[in-house]
Amino acid sequence: MKVLVLNCGSSSLKYQLIDTNGEEVLCIGLVERIGIDGSILKHEKQGKDDKLVIEQPMKDHKDAIKLVLDAVVDAEYGAVKDMKEIDAVGHRVVHAGEKFASSVVITPEVEEALKECIDLAPLHNPANIMGIDACKAILPGVPMVGVFDTAFHQTMPESSYLYGLPYELYTKYGVRRYGFHGTSHDYVSQRAAEMLGKDRKDLKIVTCHLGNGASIAAIDGGKCVDTSMGFTPLEGLIMGTRCGDIDPAIIPFLMKKENLDADGIDNLMNKQSGVYGMSGVSADFRDIEDAAAKGDKRSQVALETYVKRVQKYIGSYAAEMNGLDVVVFTAGVGENGKALRAEMASNMEFLGMKLDKEANDVRGKETVISTADSKVKILLIPTNEELMIARDTLRLVK
């Protein structure tokens, strides 16, 4: 089966066409600046050296998906000859609230449920819905599946997802911890078990999805029991531009001192904070590491604080699970930040974590980076959310 995997952002669209027979990626691409001047599509066919680049106006996601499908069937760069060869579409959907604990075939009822979750993910769900609507118009009759960022975390117990707020705010508005990056946490924890020749149900795993957005999950017996992101993707770790955990009293304090309204404080915490706000240099960890190496004090402190926050969550989740067998690093920083991985694994010997410095000298490659005698195995596993979406799509459509 050939599955088109779509990940629609507010002004972007990432896609892959995957042949589930052998799980081969046939083509891959990215559309940027949808609805903005300078719209561009970059498309790459497996095994072909050069890329197809299309620069033309795209007023909405329907225009973008039409161009994607044109590229997929292009005579020179396409991976199939006809759109009829696309058997199904898998959509990454950010927020399903408590409505879905697993992936589902998209129906009118499912679409309505996603609309009800827009308040919980105002930047992401509308784009996901636009992608679904565009595919319905361009690929009528082709089955579609929704794979949710929040679904993997639906196994958390109440003691992990409820906040210390009046219970009525949960029942009335759904204010609770949801967690995100679930497809990634699911994939790398399952892959870790496979690499170690174990059953995931027999392991206590902490997965560290460390990118510009970052989260950590505790996976015990194959199920998520806790995760660092909360009601929104703002909670938890310090990130590229997001503040992560802070004293909530800071919010009204800054609103008064800086004369900020709700949108203003939201913008400050989501787009002006994190290592970007701390360092004053960049949201890109490579830039901050360069500045730190040249003696920039703020960059050095930003990185130290970031590392401590990761260590704090690993340690707390080991305590919560009453043990730890595996720690996995994934996503942009987790896969490529060799020095940061080394720092995160330091001072953790009391948990049984011992990093092999030579094995850690690698980027973006599936590797065991702990020593042979390390009680806790440390793994680097590139995430593959698209493959997980294709697998779920295949399972549900068949």
TrEMBL record:
Q: Name its co-factor(s).
A: Mg(2+); Mn(2+)
Q: Does the keyword Metal-binding apply?
A: yes
Annotated substrate binding lies at: 92
Q: Where is this site: Transition state stabilizer?
A: 181, 242
Gene Ontology terms for molecular function:
acetate kinase activity
Entry binding sites for ATP: 14, 209-213, 284-286, 332-336
Keywords, alphabetical: ATP-binding, Cytoplasm, Kinase, Magnesium, Metal-binding, Nucleotide-binding, Transferase
Q: Which residues bind Mg(2+)?
A: 7, 385
Identify the Pfam families for this entry.
Answer: Acetate_kinase
EC supergroup of this enzyme: transferase
Cell location: Cytoplasm
The record places the active site at 149
| Enzyme nomenclature, EC number | 2.7.2.1
Q: Which InterPro entries does this UniProt record tie to the protein?
A: Ac/propionate_kinase, Aliphatic_acid_kin_short-chain, Aliphatic_acid_kinase_CS, ATPase_NBD
Q: Does the keyword Nucleotide-binding apply?
A: yes
Q: Catalyzes what?
A: acetate + ATP = acetyl phosphate + ADP
Q: How does it assemble?
A: Homodimer.
Q: What does this protein do?
A: Catalyzes the formation of acetyl phosphate from acetate and ATP. Can also catalyze the reverse reaction.
Q: Which family does it belong to?
A: Belongs to the acetokinase family.
Annotated HAMAP family:
Acetate_kinase (MF_00020)
- Recorded protein name is Acetate kinase
Naturally occurring in which organism (per UniProt): Metaclostridioides mangenotii
Q: Per UniProt, what is the name of the gene that codes for the protein in this document?
A: ackA
